[in-house]
Amino acid sequence: MGKTILEVKNLKTKYVTRFREDVYAVDGVSLTIEEGKSLGIAGESGCGKSTLALSLMGYYFPPLHYMSGDIIVDGKNISQMEPDAIRKSILGTEIAYIPQAAMNALNPTQKIIRFIEDVIHVHNPKMPKKEIYDLASARFEELGLPASVLDKHAVELSGGMKQRTVIAISTILSPKVLIADEPSSALDVTSQKMVIKMLKSLMEKGYIKSMIFITHELPLLYNVTDDIMVMYAGQIVERGTAKDMVFDPVHPYSKGLMGSIIVPESGTREHKLTAIPGTPPNLKKPPVGCRFADRCKYATAECKVNAVGIREFGDGRSYRCLIDVEKLKEVYENEQ
Q1: pLDDT, greater one: 96 or 218
Q2: Of 48, 215, 268, 319, which one is least surrounded by beta carbons within 10 A?
Q3: How far apart are the C-alpha atoms of 172 and 221, rounded to whole Å?
């Protein structure tokens, strides 16, 4: 096993609405990522993926609130650090974040180099602008972006170029962990491919040590990440290698998620598309039992009243279900 770069233990965060209602968007999430590895997080809209991404930075502002748990980055626990300390010593150098719709995050009135100066001066206020420009120019060209982009405004760049520019800016200080939240959404296929290639290049060149890639597209994760976690209603319901999660999912939700999308891979083309009935539970009042029980055709009365923990079943795989893994696999085989 390699060095652990990020370790998260039983992280719980919530939103507090203007009506003083609590929404438990991340509930007991644990994960680890080793140096040189990438982890994909998948799930339908509203399952808590983006909230988890924000929570992992340890940078909380209303309506998002930290409840409990640990976030340990390269041996340093950042879960209860002050926001100003997080901004000055963690963001950008330890953890970098690429938000959804990142291409719209650039101020249209500023040149790209000004964003980079702002990022670097938070951590190194005395670094000369000439040195910053030289660093940015070399990094951009190494990542396949022309240095001329530094002197342009955001409005002069295409959507794909904006996205790649935001990624380059976010990783200019070579963070240990990069959290990419839907980095290829709203892009055409060609631009998506270039973004993915850039992220892989950052890993290969050592500019980032590890990566969390968040998306609702499981097949995309198969081609980008080493491992995949499936999230549902604020909890992780299954984890395994990318290959196992795409070709041999165990949890009924993971199985349904894979069955509802087209995967152009050998061995899955002949499968019929199926939909997952029902809707996710209200996270203001999460169910006491399995959160997927009301939508699961295998659920029993016990599933709806008993708390469900994570079960390990070898080779680093785990799932959250009361039904034994062998019984689940047997049921799946009989249905084929």
Answers
A1: 96
A2: 268
A3: 24
